[in-house]
């Protein structure tokens, strides 16, 4: 088959695009960085790719709310293109700011309140501060193609608005019952807890969401920042053959595309 | 046109994070009658849309429907719960409002372009407040007078957004006939900060020309000749009397700091002291460049904005070096007043140190994080004398292709300004920062504070790198201090340049040609473009919504020509502009103070002393700051600022891998110790260099590829004894650089950090030399960190511990300064650093930590708690000088050039062999428990639990 192709979206303020490309290439994909203006001009640029990445950063300065302006732009100019991409069985991943964009477009979790308004949002950390720290993640969804079931990951977060909240308790139930919670924040032994185990106060320790297809993933932690051993915060204490957890996400994506396309 | 007003506030059941923070700050101000604060975001939108669309704008764009509600119009005070008063904070007219720009874009995406968007913040207070208290809260906690207006109550109107149109009025300034007094007065009236000799030089130039100068010509000279831009103090000739001897310098900088660089003449230095940053070799294809700047005065007035533009500005230095570097790492170092001072003891016109600290940290955080550049290294230092003159050092490391390290602008090339628009912000920044601060400063120089917008800079960077790689421009520099006047003036120095000032894109109308020319508005770069490449480069900028405008042309006239529309408003000879500033002869003196060692009674057990030192602000953990900075973006971090089992140990230095596909890295470190300067600035400076070197070596940096940067922040250098202390430090810079064979590659100074209080008292900052250092790491896999790794390992100390408690933290907690300041053995120190680097490179060492603030006891305890292991140590075998004869001296002396290593037993003989002939001692072992036990002469000197030490260290700055 042909090489797996990924598009990493660029826009004003996105700043994790290059390392995301590096991660995808390490996983065996061919990855191109494309500016949103050029995709809006020619949405067929997406046709050739099987993975679309909304990377981390501060799109449009996170003005109004994190990811909001870019989400608005995507909805009004690329809504059909992105929905078409997902409907074609392809993969979409949003990391950090990209996750915020996917939630604020409504692509994640993919359902809304009865009045049409959003059920889920990502808002300010309980600490009210931007925080850079490493967290453990326990897979919680069993149908998400990006996830290796049972494999706990250690990855960094770096955000000020990462708290996943729902508008109503019913929406939270629905998230959990329908398997939208893709990862939960846990401690090194797998237990849930308060700060800093759950670094932002997310409801039910939710760190990541997936849609009903399992082919769209949004997560606050940055898998592209742990693709080499020397990125681990205490790699100097760890065995030399240690695997880089972040790669599992990208490897799973590339493997899925290789098998299904 | 309709005027829409939206108020957006938290929905019941969802936290109002901002309101909660404000309430906390009000309590900190000593007001406890407020029970609750409710915050709202306010949007004022002028647009032609109808009710239904207006509601969509709120619901779909402005509001987070999950956790917020909105109100269209002016929301009355809630009639329940005791809401008593409200205020709104609006930006002053003309101040950059990035959120408004984004909202404009968002509404346009929805299908209707608004005519104007403004934003504000509204606060409702529950509880009784007098008008006076309300104003106090507004001023101290909510608004910054420099950039914001506060309106009180429901009836008050927000400030008008409109600025008047500008009609050209060409102004000349009568100068030729002025006497000395008149010249001095003119300099003062125009805020030129030029002294009489400089004014007379200008007068004589224009007498030769036979005409009066225009306002813009005088302003251009004032900017270009400012201390900030030309460093006239450091470049002056000096007669220096030092302890009765006299030394003459013809050019201080050339004969000290730069002199060492010239003598060392390293072939790996590509471009030093000539561009916006110093450039050194990295590998076969790329070089790295490094620059550290200060942004002190603006940060004193507006901590958030001042610091944000400080980091924004220094990022533009590598962007404007050679043909442009990609920024890959930030560093930051702050000096503040004591954060626990009572608010009533803070003088008029000065912000509380804690507010400054919080604002500065937030400013660097928001700008650095938004730029996507990891902030990897830094330091914070507290001293009461920084209260009115806080120091904010921001640094940036860039990666630049080897074939893009030099500029090559030619006559005929177009002058193109790229990035942000020009506004009134930052006018007179260069000259203002060269003067003394006073209690009235914040009123007079409010316009000297620039306002930043990181996303504009990020977009500009993204496009410039594409244009660079396609060779579409011939030269680039940043608009920093002095604005276009400095940037364009420097680029045209050897050629000549003509600028049409009316072409410069403006944020709003009303700027006159002088304001356009000297504005320090942020996020602007100037490039030189060949006319035939213009279309191609403009297309790149346009494709990513970056503004770029041709504003002039380089010529071969050797003259700077300024035009507005068709009128020539200024013309200066480049030679006079750049070389006309009169050379100074200054007097300086230094008399080593007569100090003595205190007599502190020996204690049997020093465990509590160790805890007290850990809790000193200058030793305490800076985790509160570090975690607010993204230190991992770009994926290059190898040694992060925090390390160890719980990722909370203090790394000695940072290591980053600046590009994919390499095993090579760059280590970054700092050295700073103002406390030693109170005893002897020479040894302070050598200590700073030694500390920076130790830090680099401890993480795996090479000891033979170290490049240094200097930042001199001093008090009023017109005072001979203050200037004298700077000269002693500069002499040490030369001696240290030569000894370590480590050239200075760039530097910067900020002199005259003096504050005049309302009663006339003048407070000078302590002599502050920041040494920032970088080194190559050949193989990042060989880097080490400072946390103990394995029980049973041997603990070694390399280097000699001496009777050097002067300026130590041990003396500090006992209220003493002392006399025996740590010195550097210039023969031995480089050998120790080289041996340490060799041992790490040979993989003989599991952990390494430099011995610095607090001394050996602190270093070992830090290694233990970071590794969550214990240590069993005896001081008896320590390599010491003869007079280092007490437990206190061995535990707490801050002698330089010392390294603590963890070595596994099977590597110890090889390790010891490598260290043969050097002062080295095995002082103990790493243990499998949580106790640090240190004995001297068989008796316990320290015995404490690592978690207690860690707690003492983490508590003071856990804000």
Automatic annotation (TrEMBL), chain A:
One of its GO terms (molecular function) is ATP binding. The keyword tRNA processing does not apply. GO terms for cellular component: cytoplasm. Coiled coil: none annotated. InterPro entries: Class_I_gatase-like (IPR029062), PRibForGlyAmidine_synth_PurQ (IPR010075). GO terms for biological process: 'de novo' IMP biosynthetic process. Pfam families: GATase_5. SMART domains: GATase_5. Its EC number is 6.3.5.3. Transmembrane segments: none annotated. Gene3D superfamilies: 3.40.50.880. The keyword Phosphoprotein does not apply. Keywords: ATP-binding, Cytoplasm, Glutamine amidotransferase, Hydrolase, Ligase, Nucleotide-binding, Purine biosynthesis. PANTHER family: PHOSPHORIBOSYLFORMYLGLYCINAMIDINE SYNTHASE. NCBIfam families: FGAM_synth_I. This is Phosphoribosylformylglycinamidine synthase. It comes from Limihaloglobus sulfuriphilus. The gene is purL_1.
Automatic annotation (TrEMBL), chain B:
Belongs to the FGAMS family. Its EC number is 6.3.5.3. The gene is purL_2. It catalyses: N(2)-formyl-N(1)-(5-phospho-beta-D-ribosyl)glycinamide + L-glutamine + ATP + H2O = 2-formamido-N(1)-(5-O-phospho-beta-D-ribosyl)acetamidine + L-glutamate + ADP + phosphate + H(+). ATP binds at residues 291, 710, 747. NCBIfam families: FGAM_synth_II. InterPro entries: PRibForGlyAmidine_synth_PurL, PurL_linker, PurM-like_C_dom, PurM-like_C_sf, PurM-like_N, PurM-like_N_sf, PurS, PurS-like_sf. GO terms for biological process: 'de novo' IMP biosynthetic process. Pfam families: AIRS (PF00586), AIRS_C (PF02769), FGAR-AT_linker (PF18072), PurS (PF02700). GO terms for molecular function: ATP binding; magnesium ion binding; phosphoribosylformylglycinamidine synthase activity. It is found in: Cytoplasm. Substrate binds at residues 316, 450, 750. Part of the phosphoribosylformylglycinamidine synthase complex involved in the purines biosynthetic pathway. Catalyzes the ATP-dependent conversion of formylglycinamide ribonucleotide (FGAR) and glutamine to yield formylglycinamidine ribonucleotide (FGAM) and glutamate. The FGAM synthase complex is composed of three subunits. PurQ produces an ammonia molecule by converting glutamine to glutamate. PurL transfers the ammonia molecule to FGAR to form FGAM in an ATP-dependent manner. Mg(2+) 2 binds at residues 317, 478. The keyword Magnesium applies. The active site is at 228, 295 (proton acceptor). This is Phosphoribosylformylglycinamidine synthase subunit PurL. Coiled coil: none annotated. Residues 410-564, 790-930 form the PurM-like C-terminal domain. Mg(2+) 1 binds at residue 293.
């Amino acid at each position: 088959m042909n090489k797996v192709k990924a598009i990493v979206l660029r826009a004003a303020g996105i700043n994790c695009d290059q390392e995301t490309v590096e991660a995808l290439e390490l996983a065996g994909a061919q990855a191109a960085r494309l500016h949103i203006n050029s995709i809006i001009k020619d949405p067929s640029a997406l046709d050739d790719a099987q993975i679309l990445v909304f990377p981390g950063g501060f799109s449009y300065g996170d003005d109004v709310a994190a990811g909001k302006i870019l989400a608005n732009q995507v909805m009004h100019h690329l809504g059909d293109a992105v929905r078409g991409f997902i409907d074609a069985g392809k993969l979409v991943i949003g990391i950090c700011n990209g996750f915020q964009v996917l939630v604020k477009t409504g692509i994640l979790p993919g359902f809304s309140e009865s009045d049409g308004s959003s059920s889920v949002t990502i808002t300010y950390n309980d600490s009210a501060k931007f925080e850079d720290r490493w967290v453990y993640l326990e897979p919680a969804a069993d149908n998400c193609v990006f996830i290796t079931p049972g494999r706990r990951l250690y990855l960094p977060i770096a955000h000020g608005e990462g708290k996943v909240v729902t508008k109503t308790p019913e929406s939270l139930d629905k998230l959990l019952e329908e398997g939208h919670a893709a990862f939960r924040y846990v401690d090194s032994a797998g237990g849930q807890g308060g700060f800093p185990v759950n670094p932002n106060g997310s409801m039910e320790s939710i760190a990541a969401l997936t849609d009903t297809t399992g082919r769209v993933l949004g997560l606050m932690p940055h898998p592209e920042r742990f693709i080499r051993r020397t990125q681990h915060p205490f790699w100097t204490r760890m065995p030399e053959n240690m695997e880089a957890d972040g790669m599992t996400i990208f490897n799973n994506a590339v493997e899925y595309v290789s098998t299904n396309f | 046109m309709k005027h829409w007003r939206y108020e957006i506030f938290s929905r019941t059941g969802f936290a109002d994070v901002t309101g909660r923070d404000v309430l906390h700050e009000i309590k900190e101000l000593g007001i406890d009658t407020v029970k609750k604060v409710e915050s709202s975001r306010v949007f004022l939108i002028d647009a032609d849309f109808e009710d239904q669309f207006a509601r969509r704008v709120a619901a779909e764009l402005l509001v987070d429907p999950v956790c917020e509600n909105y109100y269209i119009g002016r929301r009355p005070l809630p009639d329940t719960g005791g809401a008593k008063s409200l205020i709104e904070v609006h930006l002053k007219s003309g101040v950059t409002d990035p959120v408004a720009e984004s909202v404009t874009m968002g509404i346009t995406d929805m299908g209707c372009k608004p005519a104007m968007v403004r934003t504000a913040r509204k606060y409702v207070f529950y509880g009784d407040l007098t008008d006076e208290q309300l104003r106090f809260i507004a001023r101290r906690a909510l608004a910054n007078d420099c950039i914001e207006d506060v309106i009180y109550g429901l009836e008050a109107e927000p400030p008008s957004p409109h600025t008047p149109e500008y009609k050209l009025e060409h102004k000349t300034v009568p100068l030729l006939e002025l006497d000395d007094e008149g010249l001095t007065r003119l300099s003062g009236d125009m805020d030129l900060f030029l002294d009489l000799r400089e004014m007379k030089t200008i007068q004589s130039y224009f007498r030769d020309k036979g005409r009066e100068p225009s306002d813009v010509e005088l302003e251009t000279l004032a900017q270009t000749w400012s201390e900030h831009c030309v460093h006239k103090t450091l470049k002056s000739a000096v007669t220096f009397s030092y302890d009765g001897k006299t030394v003459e310098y013809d050019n201080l900088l050339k004969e000290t700091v730069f002199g060492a660089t010239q003598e060392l003449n390293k072939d790996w230095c590509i471009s030093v002291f000539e561009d916006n940053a110093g450039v050194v070799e990295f590998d076969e294809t790329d070089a790295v460049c490094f620059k550290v700047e200060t942004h002190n005065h603006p940060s004193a007035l507006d901590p958030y904005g001042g610091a944000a533009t400080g980091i924004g500005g220094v990022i533009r230095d590598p962007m404007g070096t050679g043909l442009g570097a990609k920024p890959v790492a930030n560093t930051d170092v702050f000096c503040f007043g004591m954060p626990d001072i009572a608010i009533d003891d803070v003088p008029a016109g000065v912000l509380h140190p804690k507010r400054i600290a919080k604002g500065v940290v937030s400013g660097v955080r928001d700008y650095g994080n938004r730029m996507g550049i990891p902030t990897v290294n830094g330091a914070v230092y507290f001293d009461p004398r920084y209260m009115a003159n806080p120091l904010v050092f921001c640094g940036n490391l860039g990666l630049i292709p080897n074939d893009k390290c030099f500029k090559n602008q030619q006559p005929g090339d177009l002058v193109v300004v790229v990035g942000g628009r020009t506004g009134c912000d930052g006018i007179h920044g260069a000259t203002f920062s060269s003067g003394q601060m006073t209690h009235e400063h914040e009123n007079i120089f409010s316009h000297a504070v620039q306002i930043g917008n990181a996303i504009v800079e990020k977009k500009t960077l993204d496009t410039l790198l594409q244009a660079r790689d396609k060779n579409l421009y011939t030269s680039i520099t940043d608009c920093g201090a002095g604005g276009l006047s400095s940037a364009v003036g420097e680029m045209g120095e050897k050629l000549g340049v003509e600028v049409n000032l009316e072409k410069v894109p403006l944020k709003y109308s009303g700027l006159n040609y002088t304001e356009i020319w000297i504005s320090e508005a942020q996020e602007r770069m100037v490039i030189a473009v060949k006319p035939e490449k213009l279309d191609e480069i403009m297309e790149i900028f346009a494709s990513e919504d970056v503004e770029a405008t041709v504003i002039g042309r380089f010529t071969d006239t050797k003259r700077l020509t300024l035009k507005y529309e068709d009128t020539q408003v200024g013309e200066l000879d480049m030679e006079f502009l750049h070389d006309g500033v009169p050379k100074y002869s200054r007097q300086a003196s230094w008399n080593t103070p007569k100090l003595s060692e205190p007599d502190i009674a020996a204690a049997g057990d020093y465990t509590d002393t160790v805890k007290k030192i850990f809790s000193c602000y200058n030793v305490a953990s800076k985790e509160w700051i570090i975690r607010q900075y993204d230190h991992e973006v770009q994926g290059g971090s190898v040694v992060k600022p925090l390390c160890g089992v719980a990722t909370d140990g203090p790394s000695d230095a940072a290591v980053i891998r600046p590009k994919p596909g390499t095993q090579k890295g760059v280590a970054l470190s700092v050295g700073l110790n103002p406390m030693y300067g109170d005893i002897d600035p020479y040894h302070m400076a050598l200590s700073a260099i030694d500390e920076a070197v130790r830090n680099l070596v401890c993480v795996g940096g090479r000891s033979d590829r170290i490049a240094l940067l200097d930042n001199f922040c001093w008090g009023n250098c017109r005072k001979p004894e203050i200037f004298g202390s700077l000269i002693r430090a500069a002499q040490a810079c030369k001696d240290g650089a030569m000894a370590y064979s480590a050239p200075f590659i760039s530097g910067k100074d900020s002199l005259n950090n003096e504050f005049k209080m309302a009663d006339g008292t003048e407070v000078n900052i302590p002599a502050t030399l920041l040494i920032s250092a970088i080194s190559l790491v050949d193989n990042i896999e060989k880097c080490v960190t400072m946390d103990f790794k394995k029980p049973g390992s041997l603990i070694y100390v390399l280097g000699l511990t001496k009777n050097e408690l002067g300026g130590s933290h041990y003396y500090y907690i006992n209220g003493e300064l002392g006399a025996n300041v740590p010195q550097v053995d210039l023969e031995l120190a480089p050998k120790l650093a080289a041996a340490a680097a060799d041992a790490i490179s040979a993989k003989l060492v599991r952990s390494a930590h430099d011995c610095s603030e607090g001394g050996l006891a602190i270093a070992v305890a830090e290694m233990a708690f970071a590794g969550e292991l214990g240590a069993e140590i005896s001081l008896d075998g320590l390599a010491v000088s003869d007079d280092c004869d007490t437990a206190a001296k061995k535990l707490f002396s801050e002698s330089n050039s010392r390294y603590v290593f963890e070595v596994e037993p099977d590597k110890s003989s090889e390790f010891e062999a490598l260290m043969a002939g050097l002062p080295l001692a095995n002082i103990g072992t790493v243990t499998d428990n949580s106790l640090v036990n240190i004995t001297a002469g068989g008796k316990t000197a320290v015995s404490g639990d690592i978690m207690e030490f860690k707690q003492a260290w983490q508590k003071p700055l856990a804000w």
